[in-house]
């Protein structure tokens, strides 16, 4: 084991613990299944549909019986915490734009690797940045989300080009990438992780509250724009029951411009308006304010650049160094042709529904997170 990683020393002296996490987030329906709460605790688990049952958690409010002092509550991205405070810690600066978050510069990016482009969702920027992170000294492995024939997802930490490239492409199913963070970091302290806004925010909270005592732990976080993501069973319901397709026949999925597009092995393309499965959108996604994964080092998204390119928002110096290295070493090409207004517009669509659901929650006395 790497020196310094034998014990993850708890820094948190006061925490609300699992009972409160259950009350505020899980039972009130806003757990997104990001897995951060379970990343370092054997007593918290994650089911396929994202709920988080505790087995024998003995930490009660105010009592510090938990081995790791209630990390589960303190790293959850859905409880109240100061976004500004976390930004100060991560970037040393605060966002000027609520939706885009703190950033240095935005670009359109396309991979120069044919194999990456073949598997990629958009321009393959996310995969090429992961490959550059691993090969150019930023990280020792990358955590990617792969899938099987039935689109069931799993996350692996790998340094193998084939595995990282094989993980390219968007899966609209919740993936357990953060769940395995503790296990992965014990073996590989320098990790590049790609994930949606909740996964990135949860990881950042873990990093700043917990991993600062582990000098060798070093994270490079690549975020993804995310309007919504589904527990696997709901994705299956959309594809099989509402579109009448077999999961095994699907080759690609994409949600864009208000429609779900599904490509199948017979070469056909199928579509369904997002509003036709709005009832299956998890409440955690409906109330999410972090469309652009604002706590990442670099965020990648589809909207805002031409087809075949990825919109890339660089937030930290680490992110800028990685982008520059990827460009200089020939992994990617970069253009300035990026439309951040389009990104803001798409992210803004969430606003109305979110406000309605939050006000309903308030009336019902349910927990409403406060990020001020
Ligand atoms: C659930 C979800 C919803 C999204 N919604 C939007 C949206 O509304 N608007 C928009 O513009 N863009 C959205 N995106 C981002 C977009 O689909 C692409 O992922 C992004 O543009 C990067 O493209 P790329 O070709 O550079 O990535 P690629 O090179 O194809 O790499 C994609 C990376 O994402 C990882 N990944 C795939 N699925 C998941 C998952 N479920 N959880 C965690 N990691 C995963 C893969 O492991 C891979 O490393 C969404 C992504 C996801 C995962």
Describe the protein in words.
The protein has 372 residues and is an alpha/beta fold. It has two domains: 69 residues, Alpha-Beta Plaits (2-Layer Sandwich); 226 residues. It is built from twelve helices and eleven strands. The strands form two sheets. The chain has an eight-stranded mixed sheet with strand order 3-2-4-5-9-10-1-11, with helices on both faces. The chain has a three-stranded antiparallel sheet with strand order 6-7-8, with no helix packed on it. The relative contact order is 0.17. The chain binds flavin-adenine dinucleotide. Flavin-adenine dinucleotide binds next to α5, β2, β4 and β9. Flavin-adenine dinucleotide (FAD) binds next to α5, β2, β4 and β9.
Give the helices and strands as they follow along the chain: HHHEHHEEHHEHEHEEEHEEHEH
E-strand count = 11
Strand content: 15-25%
Distance between the first and last residues' Cα: 40 Å
Largest sheet, order of strands side by side?
A: 3-2-4-5-9-10-1-11
Q: Indicate the low-confidence ranges by residue numbers.
A: 1-13, 59-65
Domains (count): 2
Bound molecules: flavin-adenine dinucleotide
Helix content: 25-40%
Q: Counting H and I runs of at least 4 residues, what is the number of helices? A: 12
Largest sheet: 8 strands, mixed
Arithmetic mean of pLDDT:
90
Structural class: alpha/beta
Features:
372 residues, alpha/beta, Alpha-Beta Plaits, 2 domains, eight-stranded mixed β-sheet, three-stranded antiparallel β-sheet, disordered N terminus, binds flavin-adenine dinucleotide
């Amino acid at each position: 084991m790497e020196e310094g990683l034998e014990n993850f020393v708890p820094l948190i002296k006061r925490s609300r613990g699992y009972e409160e996490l259950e009350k505020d987030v899980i039972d009130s329906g806003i757990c997104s299944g990001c897995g951060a709460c379970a990343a370092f605790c054997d007593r918290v688990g994650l089911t396929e549909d994202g709920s988080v049952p505790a087995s024998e958690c003995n930490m009660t409010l105010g009592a510090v019986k938990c081995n790791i002092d209630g990390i589960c509550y303190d790293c959850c991205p859905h409880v109240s915490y100061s976004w500004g405070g976390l930004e100060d810690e991560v970037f040393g600066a605060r966002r000027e734009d609520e939706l885009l978050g703190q950033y240095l510069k935005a670009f359109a990016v396309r991979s120069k690797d044919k194999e990456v482009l073949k598997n990629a969702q958009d321009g393959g920027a996310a995969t090429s940045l992961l490959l550059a992170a691993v090969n150019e000294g930023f990280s020792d492995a990358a955590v990617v989300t792969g899938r099987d024939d039935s689109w069931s997802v799993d996350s692996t930490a790998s340094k193998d080009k084939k595995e990282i490239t094989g993980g390219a492409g968007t899966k609209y199913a919740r993936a357990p990438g953060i769940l395995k963070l503790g296990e992965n970091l014990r073996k590989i302290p320098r990790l590049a992780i790609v994930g949606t806004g909740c996964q990135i925010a949860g990881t950042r909270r873990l990093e700043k509250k917990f991993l600062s005592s582990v000098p060798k732990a070093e994270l490079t976080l690549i975020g993804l724009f995310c309007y919504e993501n589904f527990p696997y069973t709901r994705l299956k319901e959309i594809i099989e029951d509402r579109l009448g397709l077999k999961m095994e026949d699907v080759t690609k999925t994409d949600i864009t411009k208000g429609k779900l597009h599904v490509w199948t092995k017979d070469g056909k393309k199928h579509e369904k308006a997002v509003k036709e499965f709005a009832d299956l959108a998890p409440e955690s996604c409906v109330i999410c304010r972090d469309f652009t994964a604002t706590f990442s080092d670099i965020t990648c998204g589809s909207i805002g650049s031409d087809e075949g390119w990825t919109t890339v928002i660089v937030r930290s110096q680490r992110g800028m160094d990685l982008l520059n290295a990827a460009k200089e070493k020939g992994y990617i090409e970069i253009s300035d042709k990026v439309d951040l207004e389009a990104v803001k517009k798409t992210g803004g669509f969430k606003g109305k529904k979110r406000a309605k659901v939050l006000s309903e929650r308030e009336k019902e006395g349910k927990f409403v997170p406060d990020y001020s």
